[in-house]
Amino acid sequence: LNLRWNVTDRLSLASGLWFSVKKNTSKKLDIPLQVPEPNTPEAFRSVLKLSYVDIPLTASYTLGEGKIKPYNSVGAIGHIYRGYEQYSTQYFENGDVTRVPVPLIGEFPAFTASAMLAGGLDVALGSHANQRLVRITRPSIFSFIRQDLMQRSTSVCSQKNSDYHERILIGLIFYVKTQ
Known about the structure:
Layout: E1 2-6, E2 11-16, E3 18-25, E4 29-30, E5 43-62, E6 68-91, E7 97-101, E8 111-124, E9 129-139, H1 141-152, E10 164-174
Antiparallel strand pairs: 1-2, 2-5, 3-5, 4-5, 5-6, 6-7, 6-8, 8-9, 9-10
């Protein structure tokens, strides 16, 4: 859900409410055993999923004229922590694969924030609707909590994570013109 207020023909402010899941997956790691033991996995992969409600606040500047216009946005996103899922996928010599829940030690911050840059195309679909193709770049939420994660769960953070998160969104925007 997004709300946008057009300050001028080119400048707009927006906010909204998004549900998001941030996921961190380790590389598949071999378990070195001197002597293979029955019912012991030979490799594993750890996964951590964090659920958030995100509240973006952005300012956008639209360029050009016509039906298709490029635009740039800058802003911040507040992330409200809602929960997690952490598990280990275990791989056995006989080909079996199991998924085992892993308890989380400690807690995540209830609120974090990150800066955001975005750019894309704004396509007019009529007098009351636009479609936006957006590329968003922001610091990864894991860059804020990685140090804390590493202290609690080294297997989850055993690989280097990107310090930036990028995604491409396609959104449909309906609005009411007041002028």
